[in-house]
Design goal:
Layout: E1 4-6, H1 13-28, H2 42-46, E2 53-57, H3 66-69, H4 71-81, E3 85-89, H5 93-101, E4 107-109, H6 112-120, E5 125-132, E6 140-141, E7 143-148, E8 163-166, H7 172-184, E9 194-197, H8 201-210, E10 215-219, H9 220-229, E11 238-243, E12 247-248, E13 251-255, H10 260-273, H11 276-281, E14 300-303, H12 310-319
Parallel strand pairs: 2-3, 2-4, 8-9, 8-10
Antiparallel strand pairs: 1-9, 4-13, 5-13, 5-14, 6-12, 7-10, 7-11
Helix pairs in contact: 1-5, 4-10, 5-6, 7-12
Protein name: Phosphate/phosphite/phosphonate ABC transporter substrate-binding protein
InterPro entries: PhnD (IPR005770)
Organism: Rhodococcus chondri
Length: 326
Amino acid sequence: MRITTRRSSRALALTATAAASLLVLTACGSSADDTGSSSSDSSAAAQGMPETLVLAAIPSEDSSSLQQQFALVQKVIEDETGIPVEFQNATDYAAVIEAQRAGKVHLGHYGPFSYVTAKDSGVPVEPLAAFADSADEKPGYKSYAIVPTGSDIRSLEDFRGKTVCFVDPTSTSGFLYPSAGLLEVGIDPQKDVTAIFAGGHDASALAVDSGQCDAGFAFDKMVTQTLIDKGDLAEGDLEVIWESETIASSPTAVLSTLPGELVDQLTDIFHTKLNRPALVEAGYCATEDECALPEGTEFGYIPVSDDIYDGVRKVCEITRSPSCAS
């Protein structure tokens, strides 16, 4: 469990971690301008097509199976485009942002906050799609404030002076929306609590359960479903004492400097082929229940546009979080 403690000053670890992670990501992926030198790939090179598509994501929980979760996504993209897909398990969102900025990651699976940070800081990306549990669903989730059952902390007002677990400085539901919630009740998350960055939503919840943090934040399903299904928490171990407004779901964003033909093809793949009914029809799964997609989504990807993340931008205005300017 990665734990970083910070009192009143802005941690510098994010930049260092991003730089180190970027080295790992860029070592493996070819950039959008890297067309290779093999004569057998001369046609693709002439069109500016990458030899390999790099897909990067970070785990919402400590998981060695993240690549397995994206295996079907990789397979469909490879079959449809004819281009091998390399999966990169990034250590944090900052690494994905900087790798896409450098043109080394072609498809990045972001949190809403980190997507906005990337987009608004000039990274040439466009959102393709986000996970949903039905085709007509408005994709979204919430941030929960959690305490051990029986705690005398009953509201955000009680967080003052306490040790509080956040997830990551660029986590939407694990830092940005919690910061806005605390500020609304007069608590400065930079000064009025001892902040701990746990590194993952599961780590944050488990640190609260173990007593390392007096209270903390994580996204809704991590608290109510994922950790309970895994046996890491039992029903009733944690109490939810606050929840945020609905947050637009995490997008997968494409590097817009890729050839337009390829961007259009990837857009069609995410919009029409990476959902359970389509995967069954195409023969990738015998039944919808057998289609293994990331984050346990019950349907698959649905299209999203940049403007659904304006709520995140508004929260950035409220919090004036240093991370919003990363």
